[in-house]
Amino acid sequence: MIALRDANVATHAGDLSGARRALSRAVRYLGRADADTDVPNWAAFVGPFEVDYDTADMYVRADQPKRAVPFLRAAVRGVGGGLARNSAAYRVKLAGALLAAGEVDEACAEVGGVLDTWGGLASPRLLGKVHDFQRVAGVVGSPTARECAARIRETV
Q1: I want to staple 107 with a disulfide (CB 3.0 to 4.6 A). Which of 30, 61, 83, 98 is the partner?
Q2: Is 7 among the domain residues?
Q3: Where are the beta strands (DSSP E) in 62-151?
Q4: Structural domain includes residue 137
Q5: What confidence tens digit (pLDDT) does each residue in 23-36 have?
Q6: Using CA atoms, how far apart are residues 148 and 133, in angstroms rounded to an integer?
Q7: Which comes out higher in pLDDT, residue 83 or 85?
Q8: pLDDT at residue 44 above 70?
Q9: Contact 75/56 with Cβ under 8 angstroms?
Q10: By C-alpha distance, which of 129, 142, 136 is closest to 156?
């Protein structure tokens, strides 16, 4: 967990080599977690999907959305449906990376899946992410993107 925090700080500071080193540490620690009896309860919930998410975040911030997409797909699969708000946030992040990578139809389908479950979600942070996606989709010259932006307006 601490290595992931280090990666997050390095990513936001623009230190990509520092982020990579911290992510490597996180993967090493994660690989030992099952055998390490000294892992505190507060750190035991960290799993591969958080490492995937933070790796994707690094690539998104480095303006390499195509490299982020496979990690975000893995993170979305890993978080599952049990954590609805987190799952929705991960899916919106994936949609943003897909949109930036030029995969408009897939990006809008991903956001559409989030909107299908919108009634059960209440998070100002998630709402901000959806509105960010809407702004970017609104300037893409695609009918699919325009329809997606309109659906976001209607739904949220």
Answers
A1: 98
A2: no
A3: none
A4: yes
A5: 888 887 776 655 66
A6: 10
A7: 85
A8: no
A9: yes
A10: 129
Q: Is residue 151 part of a domain?
A: yes
The two structure tokens encoding residue 47: 């799993």
CB 19 within 8 A of CB 58: yes
Taken in order 95, 97, 98, 99, is the CA torsion positive or negative? positive
Instruction: Let me know: does 74 contact 49? Beta carbons within 8 Å.
Output: yes
Do the Cβ atoms of 97 and 69 come closer than 8 Å? yes
Tokens 């280090």 found at: 6
What's the full length of the chain, in residues?
A: 156
**What H or E segment, with its residue span, contains residue 154?**
helix 143-155
The pLDDT of residue 9 is above 60:
yes
Selection from 99, 103, 92, 94 nearest residue 152 by Cα: 92
Q: What is the DSSP letter of 83?
A: S
Query: Average pLDDT for residues 127-156, to the nearest whole number?
Result: 94
Which residues constitute the domain of residue 134? 80-156
Give the pLDDT score at 56: 92
Question: Would you give the DSSP letter of residue 70?
Answer: H
Task: Check pLDDT > 80 for residue 71.
Answer: yes
Higher pLDDT, 11 or 135: 135
Q: Tell me how many domains the chain contains.
A: 1
Contacts of 66 (CB under 8 A, 6+ apart): 101
Tell me, yes or no, whether 74 lies in a domain: no
Nearest to 76 by CA among 97, 42, 53, 47: 53
